[in-house]
Amino acid sequence: xxxxxxTCPTEEQIHAIEEKVNEAIDRHLPVTCEFMTHEEAKxxxxxxxxxxxxxxxYVLSEIGDYDACACIGQHVENTSEIGLFxxxxxxYADGKLRLRFKLIK
Length: 105
Prior knowledge:
Elements: E1 2-4, H1 11-26, E2 31-37, H2 38-42, E3 57-63, E4 67-71, E5 84-93, E6 96-104
Antiparallel strand pairs: 1-6, 2-3, 3-4, 5-6
């Protein structure tokens, strides 16, 4: 995941990101999915990070009241199914923070 930031975060801030994500996962937020057209999806979420494809429909996944995104991957019923979020590495360049992570079940 890439995030635009004015400065590189400290180790403490990276650890705080990990903790906040795990707090959200621990809330057992429901995940709902809705099929919609490209036009409908792009009016709700940013589709620029999805790989280019000729799909007529997208899946809009809503994670409780926390997040909504268009996706093309597998889905869970609630956040507790994904396991522990662990940042395995990160780098910061040109105002962008890139996080690499894994989910540990």
